[in-house]
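Format is chain and fold; as here:
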Amino acid sequence: MQAAAGAIYGILNSNITSIDASWTASANVAWPGVDFSPPDDFVAPVIVWGDTSLSSMGSDGSNLTNGELVLQFFCRPGSGYGTLNAYADDAIDLYDRASPGSGVEFLAASGPRQVSQDDTRWLQVNVSIPFLLEGTS
């Protein structure tokens, strides 16, 4: 699954400027497990792994794993939801039905969805992109 995660995150890493021309993968992406000092706007990607089932049987059989990539977009309240919705639309264009390799196939993306924040320093919208991963057993 490590190769699949690399392919999933790789799309964002390689195409971050398609979301905003001034963004960089090191400054505007809160990668899982990496120290991060948030700028005024950024994205936090999270892979939520789902269930695995048999896709084919036998010694050369394969498994099918479902999952979801959640892109959490944040900005300061003065920017408004319009900025976040634009980021979300660009991300949907990037991921919707994409095939980045490593057995990963993205399905139709959903969102943007506004998320209520207890932390008044941020506005947030999420985009959810389900995917399937086919791999050998």
